[in-house]
Amino acid sequence: MKIIPVTCAIILQDGKVLLAQRSESMDLPGKWEFPGGKLEEGEDPESCLIREIKEELAIDIRVTATLTPVEFDYPTKTIRLLPFVAQWIGGEIDLAEHAQYGWYDQNQLFSLDLAPADLPILHELTEKWINLV
């Protein structure tokens, strides 16, 4: 099975991280995730993430760090999730695909129903929280 490369953003601001809830029209409706999207042919991961966040959330970000990639097997596909820590640098959030978004502190993150591929990233984020926030 082909592995699909997908980027995701851990956008941090004021000690909180941005998560978005997948809408009913998306795979895994209702699940929360670190927003991002699929790499296009010939696109580098950072450029993909910046483009996807602009398309999905209408904001500009700057990548500041990387976390460990995660390969995850869903029933119909395998993804390689490429997580980047990012800073919000401009624009106002306007959701194009997601149902809602929220800013969560470290203590709130595990109460959300996250997409399965995002869970290892959440664990790494909480382990490194003090160095990233």
From TrEMBL:
Domain Nudix hydrolase: 1-127
Family annotation (Pfam families): NUDIX (PF00293)
Catalytic activity, as annotated: 8-oxo-GTP + H2O = 8-oxo-GMP + diphosphate + H(+); 8-oxo-dGTP + H2O = 8-oxo-dGMP + diphosphate + H(+)
Cofactor: Mg(2+)
Keywords: DNA damage, DNA repair, DNA replication, Hydrolase, Magnesium, Metal-binding, Mutator protein
Gene3D superfamilies associated with the record: Nucleoside Triphosphate Pyrophosphohydrolase
Family of this protein: Belongs to the Nudix hydrolase family.
The name this protein goes by in its record: 8-oxo-dGTP diphosphatase
Organism: Algoriphagus aquatilis
